[in-house]
Design brief:
globular, binds uracil
Length: about 210
C-alpha cells in the first residue's frame, strides 16, 4: 500500500506475537510495547536528514555526520500512545514531546479533542505522531488535522497494528504523511476493534479492564 511501511523485523514480529496473546500480563505488555516503540522508532527515523560538522577526535580533526535541523517532536495520542514514549525517548533523549488528548466516542467512534500541549515552535519541527492501534483511523486523522491546523508540515505516523479500514481512511485524508506499522490485520469488528488484534491496548497497558 502506498505511503505505508510494514516493518517485518523478526524482533518486532516476535514481540508483537507475545503482546497478542491474551495471557500476557499487564507488566509484560507494557514492557513489550516500550521495547517495540524503540525498535519501530529506529525504522521511522532511518532517513532523517544529516549534515557534516567539524569535530576533533583525540587524534585529528574530521568532518562527521550529525542530525540536521531542530529536535524532533514525539506526539503520543493519549492514552495508548504514551506506551511508545519511554522507549523512543531512550533512543532520542533530546526529542520534544507534544501531548494530544483524544477519546473515541463509543457510539459514533468519532474522535473528540480534550487536551493539546506542544512546544511553541512545533511548526518548525518534524513531528512523529504515535498511536499503537490504527483502527478506524479517526484519532490519527484528527490528530494530524490538529497539528496541520497549528502549522506543522513535516509529519510521520507510527503505529503497532493497523486495520485496512483505518489505513485507507488515514492515507486518503493525509496522503503526505507516511505510516509505519508492524502489521496490517484482517478487519475491524462492529465495536471498532482490530481483528485478530490484541484487544484494547490502553486497558491492557494500564490494567483497566
Ligand atoms: N483500540 C484498541 O486499543 N484496540 C483496537 O483493537 C482498536 C482500537
Amino acid at each position: 500500500m502506498q505511503g505505508v511501511t510494514v516493518i517485518d523485523h523478526p524482533l518486532i514480529q516476535h514481540k508483537l506475537s507475545l503482546m497478542r496473546k491474551k495471557e500476557t500480563s499487564t507488566k509484560q505488555f507494557r514492557e513489550l510495547l516500550n521495547e517495540i516503540g524503540m525498535l519501530i522508532c529506529y525504522e521511522v527515523t532511518r532517513d532523517l536528514p544529516m549534515e557534516m560538522i567539524e569535530i576533533e577526535t583525540p587524534l585529528a580533526k574530521m568532518m562527521a555526520p550529525s542530525l540536521e535541523g531542530k529536535k524532533l517532536v514525539f506526539a503520543p495520542i493519549l492514552r495508548a500512545g504514551m506506551s511508545f514514549l519511554d522507549g523512543m525517548l531512550n533512543l532520542v533523549p533530546s526529542a520534544r514531546v507534544a501531548f494530544i488528548g483524544l477519546y473515541r466516542d463509543p457510539k459514533t467512534l468519532k474522535s473528540v479533542e480534550y487536551y493539546f500541549k506542544a512546544p511553541v515552535d512545533i511548526a518548525e519541527r518534524l513531528v512523529i505522531v504515535m498511536d499503537p492501534m490504527l483502527a478506524t483511523g479517526n484519532s490519527a486523522t484528527a490528530a494530524v488535522d490538529m497539528l496541520k491546523d497549528r502549522g506543522v508540515t513535516k509529519l510521520r505516523l507510527m503505529c503497532l497494528l493497523a486495520a485496512p479500514e483505518g489505513l485507507e481512511r488515514f492515507t486518503k485524508a493525509h496522503p503526505d504523511v507516511h505510516v509505519w506499522t508492524a502489521a496490517i490485520d484482517s478487519h475491524l469488528n462492529d465495536h471498532g476493534y482490530i481483528v485478530p488484534g490484541l484487544g484494547d491496548a490502553g486497558d491492557r497497558m494500564f490494567g483497566t479492564k
